[in-house]
Every structure is written in C-alpha cells, then in structure tokens.
Amino acid sequence: MTTARRSDATRAAILDAARERFAADGYERATIRAIARDAGIDPSMVMRYYGNKEGLFAAATTYELELPALGGLPARHVGAALVTHFLERWERDDVLTGLLRVAVTNEAGAERMRQLFTDQLLPVAAGVCPDPADAPRRAGLAASQILGMALTRYIVALGPVAGMTREEIVAWLGPTVQRYLTAEAP
C-alpha cells in the first residue's frame, strides 16, 4: 500500500471513529485519545491530520443533506417529501444525530447545524415558497419542526414519537412543513 493510500485510510478511520464518538458522547465528552483508540492509531496522528478537536469536529461534521429537487413536485407534496427525506437521512447514519446532539450542548456544534441548514435547506425553501424574500423565515420554521421531531425521536427517544412509523410521522408533520414553505404568509 502506498503512503498516500495509507494516509487516506488513516484519515477515513479517524473520521469514522470521530463521527461515532461525537454521536455517542457529544462534543464535550469526546476526546482525541478515545477517537484515536477507536480508530486504532496513536493520538498524535489525529493531531497531525486535523490539528485539534475543533478541526476534527469540523471535518467529521461536514455533511450533505442530499435534499431532493422539489421544483418538479406539485406544491402540495413538498412538505411530505421533505419529512420523508429527513427521516430516511436520519435513519441512514448517525452523523446527523451526532451533530444534533452536539448542537444542543456546544456553540461550535450549533454553528455547524445553522450553517448546514442555511447552506442546504434555505435554497430549497427559496425555490418553493411564494416569496423568496421570506425564504429564511420559512426555512427556519420548517427546520424547527424537522429538528424538533429528530430530537424527540432520535435523541430523547420519547416513546410516542419514537414508536411511530415513518408514514405516521409524515402524515402528521408533512402538512405543517408544507404550510410553512408554501402557504400565504399570515
């Protein structure tokens, strides 16, 4: 194996371990030593590649929401499509859950979450809402519902919400997200 391939494999192992550790322990309790141990490397390698815990966190929480193009959908299906997408995305891996867990306890995590939604959800909202100038407020309201659902379902594991099927959540939450994104402003 060449040095470049070994380096890429080491970076990938570090990021995988960091994502799992941040998801399990949160930002404050996750340590470079624990992440290095999980990755099967010396802690100095983590520092070599990422500089410090903040740099590692930034690299580990780079995340693509992979939002669907909603412009081709009939407007009445936008809310359900977004809620369905987020449920699938949350259940596919623990990175978004870890980021949410960190965001509620750490300013760096909160800033990463704000940036993620600003960069990725805001353009989607602007593309479907009646007044693009109102897109930031509408995207924020949609995010409040999606993040609230994720917090109660995946972090707090509130029984009634955690026990619902995807279809039930989409049926309940989809119309609210729909209204935030496409209804006339009150």
Q: How would you describe what is shown here?
A:
This protein is mostly helical. The protein has two domains: 3-60, Homeodomain-like (Arc Repressor Mutant, subunit A); 75-182, no CATH class. 75% of the residues lie in helices and 0% in strands. The N and C termini lie far apart (62 Å). 31% of the residues are buried. The mean pLDDT is 89.
Question: Can you give me a brief rundown of this structure?
Answer:
By secondary structure, this protein is mainly alpha-helical. It is 75% helix and 0% strand.
SSE layout:
Elements: H1 3-29, H2 32-39, H3 43-50, H4 53-60, H5 78-92, H6 95-103, H7 107-128, H8 135-155, H9 159-162, H10 166-182
Helix pairs in contact: 1-2, 1-4, 1-6, 2-3, 3-4, 5-10, 6-7, 7-8, 8-10
Q: Helical residue percent?
A: over 70%
Strand content: under 5%
The biggest beta sheet reads: none
Question: Which stretches of 5+ consecutive residues score pLDDT under 50?
Answer: none
User: What's the rounded overall pLDDT mean?
Assistant: 89
Distance between the termini: 62 Å
Work out the helix count. Answer: 10
| Number of strand elements | 0
Secondary-structure element pattern, one letter each: HHHHHHHHHH
Rounded to the nearest angstrom, the radius of gyration is: 19 Å
